[in-house]
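USER: Note each token:
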Amino acid sequence: MHKVVLSTSIVILGLISGGCGVGAESVSRPVQPAPAMVALPSDTESTESAIRFLEKRVSLDHDDFMAYNKLAEFYMKRQRETGSLNYLDLALRAARASLAAMPEEQNKSGLAALGQAEFASHDFASARSRAERLVELDRSKSYPYQMMGDALTELGDYENARAAYNRMSQISGGVSTETRLAREELLRGRPADAEKRLSVALALTRDQDSPPRETVAWIRWELGEVAYSIGDYSSAERYCRDALETFPDYYRALAGLARARAAQGDLEGAMEYYQRAIQIVPDPTFIAALGDVYRLAGRDRDAQGQYALVEHIGKLSELNGVLYNRQLAIFYADHDIKPPEAYQQAMREYAIRRDIYGADAVAWTALKAGKVAEAQSAAKEALKLGTRDSKIYYHAGMIALAAGDQATARDYLNRALTLSPHFDPLQELNARKALESIGD
């Protein structure tokens, strides 16, 4: 655990994936073959050495804002690679120390670091405010618009997010914009276009002298997520294995591979990969998924142990509570645990973060809390962009069934199971039972 000498009046930060000031190229660009699936060299030792050097430097000079900025960058790099929230906390502290040493007008890098760390901490409103200030200070660069688009997307302001990304793309092109526009395509219900953009982003990494292995692995994992979303589980598995060839023990890819194996009926394989992912990052989503696989395998006692751990991890610290609030609410609703608490958690988050997945969380938890009319209204909001997501369809179908609208329920449940038949190992079974209860 790294220790940094910082004033007690300063708090938290880091730089998010890919850094600042990179943009996009059009999807019309021919998609080149993906880089070979080889393990990219690890620079962990050099990164840790740089961190130790910079920590010593700021301990001797609390006003060295440039050293704090580099520390924030390196801390966030390690956070992306390891998933450890300790690095996020250190990065936030370093960014605030930087701005304490040098005001934002003369320290745009420190302001960007703080905004991006707040984004990583799910403080999206503050991240938006930092981006607005950076647009004022550095409007000729692309990175303020990247930050703006990221924050607005999470806050559910999709039209202004698209405008920010378009401006980012006009200023410069590259990997970061392609990955962001890929998410736009997914949100708008165009997974094939999302895959094209991610493939372009992956090919563009070859233009870099030393492609960052976490970025390459992350893009491969994202391609796996797109494949899984449309029921192509074998491709999802292949992309996750590719990511693990690039970056062995990459926790996202391990969990993605576990999910793909479960969808293909390999429960033992799913258990193995979820266990490996959890050993690296005890993410409540991974833990809950492992519990569900145990339950499917008839290991109810093991399943209950994982479910208890989900709550423990989700409430372990204030930061955990913020980062995992939505996951915990969905977990409760999926497993019919504490319906009123799940609904209140979803509503508290949605009051600020009004994206479609927040609306979906409100819809699902409201149904479980017996608030069918509210669930119907929230489900309509979750569906507004035309996002092709089996869980959103499934939730909408179950809500329609509870409201007595069997035709709509049948439509959405069929959509969920047609798009991705094994979208969730337990909820899939509930969807099929509901369809059977409706009949023809």
